[in-house]
Design goal:
The complex is a heterodimer. Chain A is mainly alpha-helical. Chain A is built from 12 helices and no strands. Chain A has helices spanning about 15-40, 40-50, 70-85, 90-145, 150-165, 165-175, 180-185, 200-225, 230-235, 240-270, 285-295, 295-325. In chain A, α3 packs across α4, α6 (about 165-175) packs across α8 (about 200-225) and α10 (about 240-270) runs antiparallel to α12 (about 295-325). Chain B has a single domain (about 5-90, about 155-245), classed as Rossmann fold (3-Layer(aba) Sandwich). Helices cover about 40% and strands about 25% of the residues of chain B. In chain B, strands 6-7-8-3-9-10 form a 6-stranded mixed sheet, with helices on both faces. By secondary structure, chain B is α/β, with parallel strands linked by helices. The chains are: A mainly alpha, B alpha/beta. The interface of A and B includes residues 227, 230, 251 and 328 of A. Bound molecules: adenosine-5'-diphosphate and magnesium ion (MG). The site of adenosine-5'-diphosphate (ADP) has 10 residues of chain B, from α1.
C-alpha cells in the first residue's frame, strides 16, 4: 500500500501499520483502564459494599502507588551498557546513546502510576468538555446558519469572542475572575465519592465553553456543505424548517463534521494541559511535579510527550473508525467530497 | 370549479421582475405543461404555488381557498413537488425518502409508512430498490423515487420542475412513462418540461411563459399547429426540432 505516503490526516493509517497501531494503542488503553480501576474511589466503595474492601485501593496516595512493570531490568541493561561505554573509551559515546532509551524506560515505569492518575483527569476533562461542548455547539451552528439576523449574529459574536481570545485567559477568567470554584465547592454533590475537585469542574466549564465555539465552527461549515435542495425538498413534503433541519440537514451535516470534530478532540487532549495552571492534577501537572522533584526534566517531558501522543493517536484512530462506521453511500465518506 | 387558480400574480427578486400578471386556472385531473425559455420564471411560478417563494401581489387559490390563509406545511402536504435535480434525501434509502414525510407529516406508524412506501416504490417500478441509497441509484431511478415520494403524501396536485432535464437521454423514457401513467390515472399535474412528446400526448393545456408573462395558452394542437403568436411558434418549433 503506497497510499500510506499520501495519507495526510492522523488516524488514516492502513494495512500492517494499522494492526501495530491497534495493538500498541490497545495495550496503552488496557494499562490505563486497569490503573484507573485499581485506585478508583467509586469502584472501591462498590467493592467494599459487597465485602471486598481490599480489591480496589483508592486510599493509596498517587505518589505511593506501585508500578506494575518493574524498572529494574531496564535499569540493569542501562547500567551494563554504561559499563561497556566506560570500557571502550572515546567511542563509548555511541554506546551511551544506546543506553539512554533503557534509562528512559526505567524512568517511565517508575513514573507510570502518577502519569496514569494524571491521564485519567486529562481524559475526563477532554471527554466531558467535548460532550457538553457538542450539546452547545449544535444549536449554535444551527442558529448561525438558519437563524434570523439577530440570533445568527449573537451566535457569530459568541464563537468569534471565544475563538479570538486565548484559552488560558478564559480559564483564568473562570477560575480567578468569577468565583466559580467557590460556588462549585458549595454544591452538595461535590462531597460524593469520586466527584472531581472544584478546580477540575471550573476547567470543564472553561473547556466546554471554548470547545463549543470551535465545534460550532466545524459544524457550521459542515451544515453549509449540505446541499440547499435537501432542506427545500424536506419543506416541499410538508416538514417545517425545524423538522427539516433535524431529520435531513443534521444527519448529513454531523457526518460531514466528524473530521473537524476529530481535530478539535485532538486539540483539546493537548490543550487540557492548561488546567495544570489552575491546580488540576492532570497528566501535565503530574509530569511537571515529577520534573521538579527529580530534576529529570528531559526524561519526564519526553515520557509525558509520548503519553499525549499515545492518547492523540488512539483517539484519531477511533474517530476514523467512527467516521467509517456511520458513513452511508454518498454521505460522510471523507473521500470524494469537496 | 378549478382546483388551482392563479390570479394576477406578480413577483420580483429585488428590482428584477420575474413574474408579471400571471393568471390561469386548472381543473382536477388536468395536466398542464408550462414551457418557456430559461429564466422566464417557470420555476418561480411553481415555487409560488407551494409557497417555497412568496408572491408580491395577486392571489392563488387551491380548492377555492387562498393559499396564504392555509398553514404552509399543510399546503405543501397537499401540493407535491418533483425537482429537476431530484433532491432525494441523501442519507435515507429509497424507502426512507418516502417514509420521512409519511411519519413526520401524516403521523403514520413505522409499519404503515413502510408498507405504503413499498407500495409506491412498486408503482414506479422500484420495488427491488427500497433499501438502496440515492447514491446507489441511476438518475432515472432517483427521479422515480422522487415522484413516489411526492405521490405517497396523497397530494391534490403535483408540481414537476423539469423532471427530466438533468437526466441522460437514455434515462428520460422511464421517468416520462411514470408521468404518463400518472396522467392517465387522473393525477392533477402542473409540469414544467421541454419534452414535447409528453406535452403533445399527455397535456390538456400548454402555457407558453416568456419573460415572466403568459404569452399564449391553449390545447396542444392549437399551440403546435396554429399558434396565435409568432414567438410561440418559433419557440415550440425549436424545441420540437431539438428533441427529434
Ligand atoms: N432566489 C432567487 N433570488 C434572486 N433571483 C432569482 C431567484 N430565483 C430565481 N431568480 C431569477 O428569477 C428569474 C427566473 O428564474 P426561474 O424562475 O428559475 O426561471 P426558469 O425556471 O424559467 O429558468 C431568473 O432571472 C433568475 O435569475
Ligand atoms: Mg427552472
Amino acid at each position: 500500500m503506497s497510499a500510506d505516503t499520501v495519507d495526510a490526516a492522523v488516524g488514516t493509517i492502513r494495512g500492517r501499520k494499522k494492526v501495530v497501531a491497534g495493538v500498541v494503542g490497545g495495550a496503552l488503553w488496557l494499562w490505563l483502564l486497569a490503573r484507573w480501576a485499581a485506585h478508583n474511589t467509586l469502584l472501591d466503595s462498590v467493592f467494599t459494599a459487597i465485602g471486598l474492601p481490599d480489591l480496589i485501593r483508592s486510599e493509596v496516595r498517587v505518589g505511593a502507588r506501585e508500578p506494575w512493570i518493574p524498572a529494574e531490568p531496564f535499569a540493569a541493561v542501562a547500567e551494563a551498557l554504561g559499563g561497556v561505554a566506560a570500557a571502550v573509551g572515546p567511542a563509548g559515546v555511541l554506546v551511551e546513546w544506546l543506553a539512554w532509551p533503557f534509562e528512559l524506560a526505567a524512568f517511565a515505569t517508575s513514573t507510570g502510576p502518577a502519569l496514569a492518575a494524571g491521564a485519567f483527569i486529562t481524559v475526563y476533562l477532554t471527554v466531558i468538555s467535548m460532550a457538553f461542548g457538542l450539546v452547545i455547539a449544535v444549536p449554535l451552528a444551527v442558529t448561525r446558519v438558519y437563524g434570523g439576523p439577530i440570533s445568527s449574529s449573537l451566535s457569530l459574536a459568541y464563537t468569534e469572542l471565544i475563538r479570538g481570545t486565548p484559552l488560558l485567559a478564559q480559564l483564568f477568567f473562570f477560575y480567578f475572575g468569577l468565583p466559580l470554584a467557590g460556588l462549585v465547592s458549595g454544591i452538595g454533590l461535590m462531597e460524593l465519592p469520586g466527584a472531581p475537585r472544584s478546580a477540575a469542574v471550573v476547567a470543564i466549564i472553561a473547556f466546554t465553553v471554548n470547545s463549543s465555539a470551535y465545534q460550532a465552527e466545524y459544524i457550521r461549515a459542515a451544515l453549509q456543505s449540505v446541499d440547499e435542495g435537501q432542506l427545500t425538498a424536506a419543506r416541499a413534503v410538508g416538514l417545517s424548517k425545524r423538522e427539516g433541519i433535524r431529520h435531513v440537514v443534521l444527519p448529513q451535516g454531523l457526518r460531514f463534521a466528524i473530521p473537524g470534530w476529530t481535530n478539535e478532540f485532538v486539540y483539546l487532549i493537548k490543550y487540557s494541559s492548561l488546567a495544570a495552571f489552575i491546580t488540576v492534577p492532570d497528566m501535565f501537572r503530574r509530569a511537571r511535579d515529577i520534573g521538579s522533584d527529580t530534576f529529570q526534566y528531559t526524561e519526564i517531558y519526553v515520557v509525558v510527550g509520548l503519553c499525549y501522543l499515545g492518547l492523540v493517536l488512539t483517539t484519531a484512530i477511533a474517530m476514523q473508525r467512527l467516521e467509517d462506521r456511520v458513513a452511508l453511500p454518498g454521505v460522510g465518506t471523507s473521500t470524494g467530497r469537496e | 370549479m378549478s382546483l388551482l387558480r392563479v390570479d394576477s400574480v406578480d413577483k420580483s427578486y429585488g428590482d428584477e421582475p420575474v413574474l408579471h400578471d400571471v393568471s390561469f386556472g386548472m381543473d382536477r385531473q388536468q395536466v398542464e405543461v408550462i414551457v418557456g425559455p430559461s429564466g422566464s420564471g417557470k420555476s418561480t411560478l411553481l415555487r409560488c404555488v407551494n409557497r417555497l417563494t412568496e408572491i408580491d401581489s395577486g392571489e392563488i387559490y387551491l380548492d377555492d381557498e387562498e393559499i396564504h390563509g392555509v398553514d404552509e406545511n399543510e399546503l405543501r402536504r397537499r401540493v407535491g413537488m418533483v425537482f429537476q435535480d431530484f433532491n432525494l434525501f441523501a442519507h435515507l434509502t429509497a424507502r426512507g425518502n418516502i417514509t420521512l414525510g409519511l411519519r413526520e407529516v401524516l403521523g403514520l406508524s413505522k409499519a404503515e409508512a413502510d408498507a405504503k412506501a413499498d407500495d409506491y416504490l412498486d408503482r414506479v417500478g422500484l420495488a427491488d430498490q427500497a433499501d438502496s441509497y440515492p447514491a446507489e441509484l441511476s438518475g432515472g431511478q432517483q427521479q422515480r423515487v422522487g415522484i413516489a415520494r411526492a405521490l405517497a403524501m396523497d397530494p391534490e396536485l403535483i408540481l414537476f420542475d423539469e423532471p427530466t432535464s438533468a437526466l441522460d437521454p437514455e434515462l428520460i423514457g422511464e421517468v416520462l412513462t411514470v408521468m404518463k401513467d400518472l396522467a392517465e390515472e387522473g393525477m392533477t399535474m402542473l409540469c414544467v418540461t421541454h419534452e414535447m412528446g409528453f406535452a403533445r400526448s399527455a397535456a390538456d393545456t400548454i402555457t407558453f411563459l416568456d419573460d415572466g408573462e403568459i404569452v399564449e395558452r391553449g390545447p396542444p394542437e392549437q399551440l403546435f399547429e396554429n399558434p396565435e403568436h409568432e414567438r410561440t411558434g418559433t419557440f415550440l418549433g425549436e424545441l420540437t426540432g431539438l428533441h427529434q
